Amino acid sequence: MSGKIKTALFDSNTFKLDQHYPRPSIAHDAKPFSKQPLTALYLILYIPFLLIIVPIYANLRWVYLRLFVPTAPNWSLLNFVTVYLVRHTVWYWWCTTKGGLRGIFHANLTEQQRKRRRAWFGAMPDEIQPFSLEELVEPMRSWAVETDAQDLQGTVPIWWMGDRGNALKQSKAKKDETLLVYLTGGGYMISSCHPAVPLAHLMQHVMKEFKTSNSKRLPKSAVTVEYRKSGEAPTPCALMDCLALYKHLLEDLRFDPNNIVIMGDSAGGHLVNSLIRYGQDADIPTPKAAIFICPWTEQAGTIVEHPHSSFQRNKPYDVLSDNFYHMCRDTFAMHFKQPNKTLLDVYFSPCSVLGKVTKNGKLIKESEESTIFQDWPKTFVIGCYGDILFDQSTEMYRRVLLSKEAEGKATTKEEISLHLMEGSHDPFVAPSFVFAKERKKALKVLCEWVANSL
What we know:
Blueprint: H1 37-68, H2 77-98, H3 111-121, E1 126-128, H4 140-147, E2 156-162, E3 179-183, H5 201-212, E4 221-225, H6 237-252, E5 260-265, H7 267-281, E6 289-293, H8 310-314, H9 322-333, H10 339-342, E7 358-359, E8 362-363, E9 378-384, H11 390-406, E10 416-421, H12 436-453
Parallel strand pairs: 3-4, 3-5, 5-6, 6-9, 9-10
Antiparallel strand pairs: 1-2, 2-4, 7-8
Helix pairs in contact: 1-2, 5-12
Transmembrane segments: 40-60, 72-94
InterPro entries: AB_hydrolase_3, AB_hydrolase_fold, GDXG_lipolytic_enzyme
Pfam families: Abhydrolase_3 (PF07859)
């Protein structure tokens, strides 16, 4: 489904920013379960609750919602129960990891733990040189100084898939060779970009769809990067690792930016936004096209607290719980001295309510809304009706569309497109049977869009 959304979702006078960002206790300071016997007992007793009580409760809740709550997501019983179970499982897994079980997906890993994780997967990544703090330009350089960001000691791991995934050594790009760059989600807190991890399955789904197409312009290879998470390094370390990958593609492998499609889901979509903006500020050629799937485009919190926002409407049902969302946001912001002010910048919240968005410290007036996504690449946005970030997906589409219209560009489907579907947040990382028809259709539309946009 594609369409035009012409009006702003919210009025800027409705909101007031939080005056205080909590400083969460993250896993760096977590105690082992041997020193937390009651916590360990609770988590053990939670297992039968998770496997028995939660599915039964989800069934009863689905029946109640279908009968008495017309605004609830229009999901099948199987989809609803699975999403509910995954929601509780993710939260349980996070609690156990935070409590001392440093799992293979955890964000806060030492270099030794990183090596063990790779060995467990049985796959070794390529290693590229990190992006240096000295290379940063403003305003990112000032934020790096403010958060006391440090250069990565070592190399940045990246993984290839497709034709280049079988190469022992990467060669320079051929003429007209296209490439998909994928930045994985996870709230800047969890997961790995390794293809075996569920949160990185999106890249596999997209490449599989590309392979079945007859278009010669579709990428036959994809690459992703293991960027540092908020729990182990402050902002903008994650962006610096993504810039290291992009620099490697342009300078070492000689890829033409006009042959690159960059894609991100959830926090990965947020990173795509930041990378494109950094490219504009640093005079680095940006990718030809960008794909945003359930993107996190508003970290300042000016939308989510509104009583009629998708966040409030969908938080009882979405796989992304409001507790986990706020924990990710607060951890991302915890190193800034003035997070309420900093997070309003277009690097972090390009979809904040009008009259509050800033750029380089200057307020963007409502009459200047069309400048927020100025000179933006071709854009494809996927939003899910049951996603707590649904408003952020549609608002991003509307603002990109507005910017392209102001620049006099033809707003064809190849230039800017929106696909809306039934589903929870980031449904492509869920088990394959969840929202199967909707996912299949969305991937087909995405494939056709990329073929026509490159």
